[in-house]
# Entry
Amino acid sequence: MPARPISAGMISFGLVSIPVRLFTATSPKSVSFNLLHDRDKSRIQQKIYCPVDDKIIDRSELVRGFEVEKGRYVTFSDEELRSMEAQGDHTIEITEFIPLSEVDPLYFENGYYLGCESGSAKAYRLLADAMAQSARVAVATYTMRGKEHLVLIRPYAKGLMMHTMYYADEIRSVEDVDRGLNTETKPAELDLAKRLIADLTQKKFDPAKYHDNYRERVLEAAHRKLEGEEVTEAPTEERKGKVIDLMAALKASLEKRGFAIEEGELAHRKAGVSPRKAASAHGGAARTTERTRGSGKK
# Structure
């Protein structure tokens, strides 16, 4: 089935305007459930209940309330809210170009493919190629349905892609999160960790390798239930224990992946001494012993 645009837009920067169409880039496939009445398996209905009047009320009796403090609200009519909506619907106004590395992925929200209109192919192609060759992305504002969104436009698959973004005040501070900043790591521990990372490193990300195992189990169980088969409980996965000896855990991880680490090397690493220095010291001690024995024979 051909992709259908969800909206139209107009990329604008300077005196340049490029009509585009927006396409949804992702389609979450997480499983969802409806609530049923257990006795007759019919789907339930949700009613709007007012606890003050102790009765079910109609949706037409509802107004929008903004909580200014706990339990205290100010109300807005639909007309008041419409009067505050942003103007310039569907305009994607570019404000600046920056390197993509300057934007933390934490700010990304949703992704959309941008396609060109029939009369904007040349301008679209020029912008996409220029951004790709200069390694720049565009920061813009996008007005849709009266609301202004912060967005980022970047080259993607020989075209353009747009990401809606969180505003700065929507990002929670990390300062209250314990990140182990007062804990020291030893060079030997860091060396083993880097070796394990290097062994697990791939040149490219292959998302097809990964699957939503929970979703697949639920879908399989649903089909089996439909066919009248008995569904047995899946075996529980073995819980991983708490890491006590970091060096031993790193060593076990490397050995599991085919690396052999001698016990002497591990002991030297625990002591914070590199294997090369340990070997050098061992060789020096051996030579000193030989010279001493030689002096005794004289």
About this structure: The first strand starts at residue 7 and ends at 13. The chain has seven helices and eleven strands. The chain has a mean pLDDT of 85. Residues 184-195+244-289 form one domain.
